[in-house]
TrEMBL record, chains A, B:
Residues 12-72 form the HTH tetR-type domain. The lineage of its organism: Bacteria, Bacillati, Actinomycetota, Actinomycetes, Pseudonocardiales. Pfam families: TetR_C_11, TetR_N. The keyword DNA-binding applies. Keywords: DNA-binding, Transcription, Transcription regulation. SUPFAM superfamilies: Homeodomain-like (SSF46689), Tetracyclin repressor-like, C-terminal domain (SSF48498). It comes from Lentzea sokolovensis. Transmembrane segments: none annotated. PANTHER family: HTH-TYPE TRANSCRIPTIONAL REGULATOR RUTR, TETR-FAMILY TRANSCRIPTIONAL REGULATOR. Residues 35-54 bind DNA. This is TetR/AcrR family transcriptional regulator. InterPro entries: Homeodomain-like_sf, HTH-type_TetR-like_transc_reg, HTH_TetR, Tet_transcr_reg_TetR-rel_C_sf, TetR_C.
Length: 196, 196
């Protein structure tokens, strides 16, 4: 038998190469200077190949982030039955991820643009923030059923309180981003600031 | 008697004009394109006048933010004896401030640069974040003495948890920035996420 090239597999490889190139390139040149042309050149494909799959550099970049963050893994938050332990696991992994210069640069480039660009911010909310938020809500709802989270907690406020501090500290470099810090955030958020 | 011009008062007026111009200009052109020359021209003063008081556009801009935020008022956080009420007051005022397009634009311009620029981020931490943080710590220490805040709470974690969500929601536009939202953040942070 002769080896028959599998067009699906070839497409997959090309797609992955393009997404990976986009992450590298946005980290190098920033979002403003990122072009479809530039990504095509760096990935060694034609511009038309890219336009076949993506209508804009924004949607390409968000796919790249989703792929980089690991599509499969991100399908759910861990649920061992221990909410605090699971949240610490996720947040420690986030800290480790942001320690990777490639991811750090790409994420910074995107966040800078989001701060200034309404349309990109809307796409960020729709494609990254909301899907991730829904996974977090699902985990928190399970915690409510398990009696580890108060029933009347506003889930979005809980999410902002658990996941926001890490993002802030990273973006504004207001302090060291360590496992200890995220553990404290989780424990403090769960227990509250008031005396018990 | 003839009116003798008061050089101190004239200096004060010139200083204020320069700071106010810097806020306007950074909102218009962004930090990267902000120049001492441009500020001097827009404020109608000579470049040398600016260099007499500030060594860089960064330090000028941080003075402008401190002046805009109201030097005197920012000397302490309110302390009526009710921690939750005081925090809500401060955070509602922050929300109102960010609703001012002039402030919004200038703050965004600064934050964008902080994300990418290590040196500016260090200046931000030193000149804005740390002094504000110290005021917040002072208020939280008073709350600890009054029995409204647990003694073993890490104050910096508490501050990130109370003030971070508003900053995030504003920068990333992930949801509406309302008085209701900040009230929920304060109540949830104080009470904690666990069932009581």
């Amino acid at each position: 038998m002769t080896a028959v090239p599998d067009p699906n597999r070839r497409n997959d490889a090309a797609r992955r190469a393009i997404l990976s190139t986009a992450i590298d390139l946005v980290g190098e040149v920033g979002y403003a200077k990122l072009t479809i042309q530039g990504i095509a050149r760096a990935a060694g494909v034609g511009k038309q190949t890219i336009y076949r799959w993506w209508s804009s550099k924004g949607s390409l970049l968000f796919d790249a982030f989703l792929a980089f963050a690991g599509d499969g893994e991100a399908a759910a938050l861990p649920d061992t039955g221990d909410l605090a332990a699971d949240l610490k696991l996720v947040l420690r992994a986030t800290v480790d991820e942001l320690d990777d210069p490639r991811y750090d640069q790409a994420m910074r480039a995107m966040h800078v643009e989001i701060v200034n660009d309404h349309l990109l911010a809307a796409e960020y909310v729709l494609r990254l923030d909301q899907p991730m938020r829904e996974l977090k809500r699902t985990r928190l709802r399970a915690a409510q059923r398990a009696g580890q989270l108060a029933d009347d907690v506003e889930l979005d406020v809980a999410i902002d309180m658990l996941f926001g501090p890490v993002l802030n500290r990273w973006l504004q470099r207001t302090g060291p981003l360590t496992h200890d810090y995220v553990d404290q955030v989780v424990d403090t958020a769960l227990r509250g600031l008031q005396p018990r």
